[in-house]
Write a structure and sequence with these properties.
The protein is an alpha/beta fold and 310 residues long. It is built from twelve helices and nine strands. Helix 3 links the parallel strand 1 and strand 2. Helix 1 runs antiparallel to helix 7 and helix 11 runs antiparallel to helix 12. The two termini are 29 Å apart.
Length: 310
């Protein structure tokens, strides 16, 4: 069981993202994760790699810090671009402002972005195989299927609480799930941010109120809150998909050693779960997650084929 997290720290991380690329690198002056100097001659010679992600989406937060550690260990300089919208991230990735998105739901959830930008991107491989989108309610709520939402809008104030407007989860919920289950006339999908959704969920659970939210797996909130996934007999939330490392076009030619290292990363449920738990939970409230990755690597020295350890 995960230690109790303080939701305020997640909200703080979510609000820290920038909406523009200019000047939003967060750690270009940090030392390398393995004790080297991030500005060393070796790093400068290998080059600088920019990782773009949404900190509120903790799969990308966790894998960004893992990649930072591993890439700096072989001599690269790593910088972060912390953003708040998937649309901006994909635009930056396609335009070369971001080199790597370290946790893309590119098969289904972000399919519309892949249709728009796919020709300008390079897939470096999948690191996790069983991700899925969900609709969830508290365990005490007396429904078990998405189809049970029909006719019960009064239980939830006619609202489904969502996340960022540009998220693939938002699109899937609004354009596929709600029409499939004929919920458009009864419910509104309320979008804002992951942090706001989690705060709303926390308040509802604390007061034992009914609430329906958009969620996904893997995500720490599924263990943090007493919630359950609603059954999806129509398959409207999509099939499970893999999470990928996406890069800007030409990345593997410019950074062949980095591409090879990244392509070797594949994590099973236990390995991924412990990575996110360590980054988000054990080191909750700490902006610098370098120590979290060091702890995880010590506990998982053989997690993937290309792993670099001291």
């Amino acid at each position: 069981m995960m230690k109790k997290r303080k939701l305020a720290s997640i909200i703080g991380i979510g609000l820290a993202g920038s909406l523009a690329f200019a000047g939003c690198s967060t750690d270009s002056e940090e030392p390398a994760a393995n004790g080297g100097d991030g500005d060393s001659g070796a790093s400068e010679e290998m080059g600088t790699i920019t990782l773009g992600f949404l900190p509120a989406w903790t799969d990308g937060l966790s894998t960004a810090w893992l990649l930072k550690n591993q890439l700096e260990a072989i001599g690269y300089t790593v910088e972060f671009e912390e953003l708040t919208e998937a649309a901006i991230l994909y635009t930056g990735l396609a335009g070369g402002d971001v080199d790597v998105y370290p946790s893309a739901w590119s098969e289904t959830t972000h399919a519309s972005y892949m249709e728009q930008y796919g020709d300008q991107l390079e897939d470096l491989g999948a690191y996790y195989e069983n991700a899925k989108l969900t609709i969830a309610v508290p365990e005490y709520t007396d429904i078990d299927s998405i189809e049970d939402l029909a006719g019960n809008a009064d239980m939830f104030g006619g609202e489904i609480i969502g996340i960022e407007p540009s998220a693939g989860l938002t699109e899937q919920t609004e354009t596929v799930m709600m029409p499939e289950y004929e919920l458009e006339d009864e419910y509104s999908l309320v979008t804002s941010s992951t942090a706001t959704m989690l705060a709303t969920l926390e308040e509802a659970v604390a007061n034992e109120e009914d609430i329906v939210v958009t969620l996904w797996r893997p995500f720490w909130a599924n263990s943090e809150f007493p919630i359950k996934d609603l059954e999806d007999p129509m398959g409207a939330m999509g099939e499970p998909e893999a999470l990928h490392f996406l890069a800007t076009e030409g990345f593997s030619e410019e950074f062949p050693e980095a591409a090879e290292l990244i392509a070797g990363i594949q994590l099973d449920d236990d390995e991924y779960g412990s990575l996110e738990d360590t980054v988000v939970n054990t080191y909750e409230g700490e902006d610098d997650k370098s120590a979290a990755i060091e702890e995880w690597l010590e506990a998982n020295p053989d997690a993937f084929d290309t792993i670099v350890t001291d």
